[in-house]
Amino acid sequence: MTTSNEALIKVENLVKHFGEVRVLEGISTEIKKGEVICIIGPSGSGKSTFLRTLNLLEEPTDGHIYFEGTDITQKNTDINVHRQKMGMVFQQFNLFPHMTVLKNMTLAPVKLLKMSKADAEKRAMELLNRVGLSEKANTYPSQLSGGQKQRVAIVRALCMQPDVMLFDEPTSALDPEMVGEVLDVMKKLAEDGMTMVVVTHEMGFAKEVADRVLFIDEGIIMEEGSPDELFSNPKSPRLKDFLSKVI
Amino acid sequence: MSFFENYFNEIKDSFIKNFITQDRWKQLLNGLGVTLEITVFAAILGIVIGFIIAAVRSTYDRNLSGKKCRNFGDYILKILNAICNVYLTVIRGTPVVIQLMIINFIVLSSVRNGIYAAILAFGINSGAYVAEIVRSGIMSIDKGQFEAGRSLGLNYLQTMWHIVFPQAFKNILPALGNEFIVLIKETSVAGYVALKDITYVGNLIRSRTYEAFFPLITVAIIYLAIVMLLSHFLKKLERRLRNSDH
């Protein structure tokens, strides 16, 4: 098979087993540049694992992942180089508690992109400004609210100027009143044309922002399509059942 | 009056006998030098050994524990981990005096320099304890920290160095400080391999003057002073490292 120029990420028959537990049972899909993809599904369905295999935080048992034309599942590829182009945002934020917000953001660009400290800080400040947190630049993560932490985590990933952003349930650990501020940042990001893969339970967000929704269950993509198709006209009984529970 | 005068003179005589005669204060000072020399170099050696062992063991625990080896590197790691385990078991399972004598009279018997044997023995001994302290520190850091570092594109070593280790260090500092306090006091058995450390000198003076009070209490006070000084600096360091915790 040839990889089209348009597909930023191409996944072929991805399989992941944790010992006896079969989490992913063969997933194939393509993610195009600028596309916003939301992944929904019941807990334990493998959707987070799928996202984490995309940047090889989980090593796939079988199958191929092509990122910008390179098969990153090959042993000889330097995954660190590709990860620089794939930003990731975690459910638990995972800010570095021993560094200020600014240092959190500039560490990777300075070490990996060989940016000068001044340049990296300038860019970090611009990004902080965009998410309304410029006055927090010199505070430590422990002094931020959950919503603020997640916004910092998003701009920390953006500091590396990634080609795709992976979100692993970015609002699941937040207090309800803070979910909105994080989703707003993500919406803005989507409007700016960022390619995004979002594992989420926020059906409203998926409806509004996603170009395509994947419903993953039992380790496969059970159904996929535009949010309109999927939410108003689900075909598989599993998806019908799932939607009846979450909406 | 004469009672106090007598009492005072006795103390004065005893003081002169134990410290001034034959320049015994100089012997004590030299003994202190030997104790500090062994301690400092053994601590450095212990840190180096401890970190290497901890790196091997925590890498194994994170990546390979309970899993099958898939490539050559995995087998190497497994073998290294097994060697580290043997080292930890043997060192922590035998008294340090015995280790010291084995190294001095068997391993380094041809060298005939007790100080090298002592540095090596105490360093190797301390390394085993430092290793477990460091490993517990590394394992105490949430896996998400490691993943966040890797997801930014940092490699394994960069992530350990910039993200995991600084946080682990803060957590283990009290335990590490404790280990060095123990180490200083453990060197007091260096006399077993004919080293004239401060304990040995104190005991030597006691055997010459037939007076136990001054030499032994002096030695005790010197150890106490060193330990208190060290604790003071450790506390200061701890406070400085805690500034991100408000």
Q: Characteristics of this structure?
A:
heterodimer, A: 247 residues, alpha/beta, 6-stranded mixed beta sheet, 9 helices, 37% helix, B: 246 residues, MetI-like fold, 81% helix
- The third-level CATH topology of chain B is MetI-like fold
Outline the biggest β-sheet of chain B.
Answer: none
Count the beta strands of chain A.
10
Number of helices of chain B: 9
* Strand content bin of chain B: under 5%
> Strand pairing plus helix content of chain B: what structural class?
mainly alpha
Specify the helix fraction band of chain B.
over 70%
Largest sheet of chain A: 6 strands, mixed
Mean pLDDT of chain B: 91
What is the 3D shape of chain A?
globular
Global Rg of chain B = 23 Å
Biggest sheet of chain A: strands side by side, in what order? 6-7-8-3-9-10
Count of folded domains of chain B: 1
* DSSP summary: helix tally of chain A: 9
Oligomer: heterodimer
Note the run of SSEs of chain A as H and E: EEEHEEHEHHHEHEHEEHH
Corresponding CATH architecture of chain B = Orthogonal Bundle
- Give the end-to-end Cα distance of chain B, rounded to a whole number of Å: 62 Å
On the 0 to 100 scale, the average pLDDT of chain A is 93
